[in-house]
Amino acid sequence: MTNDPNLHEQIGEFVRNVVTAMGVTVTVTPQVTADGVRVDISGEEGELLVRRKGEALDALQHLVNSIWRDQTGRDGRIVVDCLDFRKGKDAELRQMAKFMIERAKMTRQPQEMGPLNSYSRRLVHLEVSLDPDVTSESQGDGLVKTVLISPR
Length: 152
What we know:
The protein contains 4 helices and 6 strands. The strands form 2 sheets. Strands 1-2-3 form a 3-stranded mixed sheet. Strands 4-6-5 form a 3-stranded antiparallel sheet, covered by helices on one side. By secondary structure, the chain is α+β, with helices and mostly antiparallel strands.
């Protein structure tokens, strides 16, 4: 993570400007976390960002990460969440990864998850890394790939 103590404020201000330009009235709260920056968006109009499976929120997340990738470094993460939508989806994704890990171990066959964006793939790889009996790898081209979970 960068040494800039105001990075989370810069990112928060950018998110504020984008959602304001979209005509959405919400509260944007940036904070520094153990592995980067988290920007929470709250308010009734935030529903507009999480419609259609959170496509607008994913687009905003992608935009923010593209702009600040150089400043956050390889290990720095920026998470943009709205009305705890991402938090809920992350929990669902982790549960699905655990299920697929168990299935790979039980069947001794590789299990495929996806297509997933880079943020979701990272969560799956982290979940797989907690179990020494399985391994994972991303497959495919472009931004959206699948994750293959295989028994060791």
